[in-house]
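User: Study the chain.
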Amino acid sequence: MSIFLLPKTLCKAINSDLANFWWGYTDTKSKIHWKAWPKLCEEKSKGGIGFREFNTFNKALLAKQCWCILKNLNALWVKVLKGRNRFTLLAVQELIDPIKHCWMIDHIEPFLSIEDARAIKSIPLGDLNKDDSLIWPKEKAGKYKVKSGYHCLTSKLVVPEVGKPSSSHQIDGKVWKVIWNSGLLPKISNFLWRAISNALPCFCNLFKKKVVPSPLCSLCGQYPETIEHYLLLCPWTKRVWFGSLLGYRPRLEKISTLDCWLLRTIEEGSKLVDDPSVFLELLGFILFEIWKMRCAAIYKNGFVNPDIVISNANFSSLEMANVKMVNDSLTSTPLTSSSITTWKPPPENFIKINSDGAWDPLTKNGGTGAILRDHSGRFLVGGSYFNPYNSAIESEAMALIQGCFLAARLNKLNIVCECDCKDLVEFVNNQECGESWRLNPFMEDILGFKSHFNNYTCTWTPREANRSADAAAKLAKQRLLSNRSADAATKLAKQRLLSQEWMNYPPSLFGISSSSR
């Protein structure tokens, strides 16, 4: 699959076999597929299971070979391929003004969307004399991975909801997060997914498929057997809920759909217990045991016994809690006073630069802040600057550069830098971009400042010890919101209008500059 483009018919046959395996099959026929295969291939956060659609997955694997070709243009095997298949790389040097050191896209801007044009202009330009490198922007390290390539392809595909009007119920994405990210047993998470997705064989669903003659519940014979009915509203299940440790009384007027009921119940129940995960586990086990008892009663000619359901659910929940307690005792570390970090002054004759960036992923606007203090904790100089960026780490890097610039302007040569971005600290200390390719354009400026100072160290600090710089960075964003006339200004004019520097003492908002120590 990583070498050849497979025929669509073959990929479709593989998809079909996977779907049959998931829903179940016998020697003669497959069982009912309650959800279409494209829906199962959606991400878990969007209501799917996360299976791979093989035609798309095949293309993502082939893209890995294309990446290897572009990264090894001088390799013998690549030269052989180039001789058989002609391809040419396009450069962007025509879009850069080397004199003004800025982007020059006026001639192509009419063909770009406003968002794309703004994103291009926000890309920082590094040393133009250095060779460019190939970057895959979907990965933090800048290297192509099949997983991100697959998700990039599937994000462009729209899964049609066949047979559903536009006014049909939309499941809140929070419920999928609860199901898959709460540490539940896989069988409980899978069961809850099927129940909320209406992918269980209740009589109403079987009646729609013309499998059974009536949609009525076979246990009570009074109401249509929907998923909400046999899990919450059937007379015998009401006895289960009231007799359980939850002591819950299901009411018809408060239950519309299972997903809405689940979110509301978890929200209300979490306020009554110390550990919300224990409440969620018990809730999941009760639902699962109700389903097992219902199936045994209908298909094995058994009978429903609420006491057995309550006992099994309580036992499973208690066993799960004991396992988690043992794991927590083996992995947890006690919190000590030394683990609580606060701002600390630098050594004598040194100054400390605290820097931070604040970035809005929607507007691509960012603020940077830098605070300089001496060994006694006295404020020396600070600044709050506005700039458009394409990522949070770019704003972090620019904040550090602006702090170094303020220190150089004060003729300070012994510097200690602190920021709360670990990738940036690794980049400064090792002079390598590590896991973030977006730091490449800032390498020249950072290395220049390192060589300028006599003593220069850069360390990571938690956000609690960096609140002054964090507040300074957010100031620029606040000024943008309070000064809407800046939207129409040019980039340079906007930077001047929304940026500030302070000497000797910061604005009143920075009372936390002393409390953060």
